[in-house]
Amino acid sequence: MQRFKKITLFDLILSIGMIIVIIITLYPFLNILAISLNNAVDTAKGGIHILPRQFTFANYTEIFGSNDRLLKAFIMSVTRTVVGTATGIIASTMLAYTLSRKDFVFNKPIAILLVLTMFVSGGLIPDYMLIRNLGLINEFAVYILPMLISAFNVIIIRSFMDNLPKALEESAKMDGANDFTIFARIILPLSMPVIATISLFLAVGQWNSWFDTYLYARSNENLTTLQYELMKILDNASTSGGAGINSQNAEFIAKQTNPQSLKMAITIIATVPILMVYPFLQKYFVTGLTLGAVK
Questions:
Q1: For position 245, what pLDDT does the model report?
Q2: Bigger pLDDT: 247 or 142?
Q3: Residue 260 falls within a domain, yes or no?
Q4: For the ABC transmembrane type-1 domain, which residue ranges apply (predicted)?
Q5: How far separated are the first and last CA of the chain, in Å rounded?
Q6: Which value, to the nearest 10 degrees, does the dihedral of the CA atoms of residues 170, 174, 180, 184 take?
Q7: 250 touches 162 (CB < 8 A)
């Protein structure tokens, strides 16, 4: 009974406000999920909110069963996300560790150059010319190399490493450990919170990216990504007045699906993987940002 007496009017108002915010935040996602799981012909009538009226998996069956292009795009998105995240973490942590060393001669000049890249950009045309001259057009490496190093990620990791006890490195050196051993066996294990944080940043960036596919790899069907295919579906549906992917309404109706239902199903497919990863990294996500930002 004592616990209920401590609840103030402010606590009650705050709780109600948070519940309203949660409902407003969740409603669009639940609405998309309901439409993707509802019969397409029934969806055309409207009135779908958070629950499907006529439950069906026909929309998802259409995506993975009869459209090999979307399935290949899904696999490519997963592949570039895994490879891009892993290589990005390796490159960023190694550079951040190097810049965190006080005995590194070019510490400040390289740090200044990294910060400048956050404020100054060459632009789209120079970027395209660089990618073309490097021979990355229509190559898988175009998804990995341009996103290998991010100045923002390196600065966060470096700030975290600067707060690690220097006595650990000194004691390791006295025991005969070299720089690579110190980095692999001491620095990396202690930096897992910030590594998990940056991994989430990289994974979300790789998974949601579609513009690089449009610029550099759209002529190679084997390199198409799920987000790029989703963008094309949304663009075709809007420009053709909702006529669908190939403007064949009769075919969609015969298959008990339509462009709107397919768009919602693909949106769920593109969103769910990231939502499934985040809960496992949430505690590291918060810890990594706070510890890396406090001196």
A1: 46
A2: 142
A3: yes
A4: 74-281
A5: 43
A6: -70
A7: no
Give the count of beta carbons closer than 10 Å to the beta carbon of residue 263. Answer: 21
Which CATH number covers residue 165?
A: 1.10.3720.10
DSSP state of 74: H
- Cα-Cα-Cα-Cα dihedral of 163, 168, 169, 172, to 10°? -170
Average pLDDT of the residues in 79-91: 94
Summarize pLDDT for 274-287 with one digit per residue, the tens: 777 777 766 666 65
Q: What is the DSSP string of 197-239?
A: HHHHHHHHHHHH--HHIIIIITT-GGG--HHHHHHHHHHHHHH
Average pLDDT (54-77) is 80
Residue 189 lies in a domain: yes
Question: Which structural domain, as residue segments, surrounds residue 239?
Answer: 59-293
> Is 16 within the bounds of a domain?
no
Concatenate the DSSP letters of all residues of 156-194 into one string.
Answer: HHHHHHHTS-HHHHHHHHHTT--HHHHIIIIIHHHTHHH
Helix (H, G, I), strand (E, B) or coil at 126: helix
Is the per-residue pLDDT at 13 higher than 50?
Answer: yes
Is residue 263 a part of any domain in this protein?
A: yes
* Residue 247, pLDDT above cutoff 50: no
Please state the domain count of the chain: 1
The mean pLDDT of 218-232, rounded to a whole number, is 86
pTM of the model as a whole? 0.76
